[in-house]
Write a structure and sequence with these properties.
single chain; mainly alpha; 6 helices; 2 strands; globular
């Protein structure tokens, strides 16, 4: 009964989550939609939640992704421009890669993470999204 309650709770929370109508790529958007339709898992909500927790806890950040800050309220800033292991994706992917809807989708997760980080969490002050999109998505 507890398992059913938890499962139902997460389904309801996923339904409530706002998945914006952002077009990343045909494949990514199709994957997001198909995952919801088949498994009732909202990848966008999952990634958003993960990144909020990630941004609040700099102990999760790889040490070479930390930029020393002069601000007392935040000793470090996250260097999202690092090419390796953005958002500690390697660790996360290892934990979730056995899910049938995640297997082989690591690059898709990274793209979604970068979009959410730049548009919802950090802000794209330097217009990095277009640079990232050109390098990663268009290739």
């Amino acid at each position: 009964m507890l398992f059913l309650f938890i499962t139902d709770y997460h389904r309801i929370q996923s339904e409530k989550a706002n998945t914006p109508s952002v077009f990343l790529t045909e494949d990514i958007n199709e994957w997001l939609e198909n995952t919801w339709n088949k498994y009732k898992v909202n990848i966008w909500a999952f990634v958003s939640d993960y990144l909020v927790r990630f941004s609040d806890d700099d102990s999760l950040w790889p040490s070479n992704h930390k930029i020393k800050s002069n601000e007392k309220w935040q000793p470090y800033f996250y260097d999202y421009r690092q090419k390796t292991n953005p958002f500690n994706l390697n660790t996360l992917y290892t934990k979730i890669s056995k899910k049938p809807f995640i297997k082989g989708k690591k690059q898709y997760l990274e793209i979604i993470m970068m979009y959410i980080w730049l548009h919802d969490i950090w802000g794209d002050k330097e217009n990095y999204w277009e640079e990232y999109r050109t390098k990663i998505i268009n290739n």
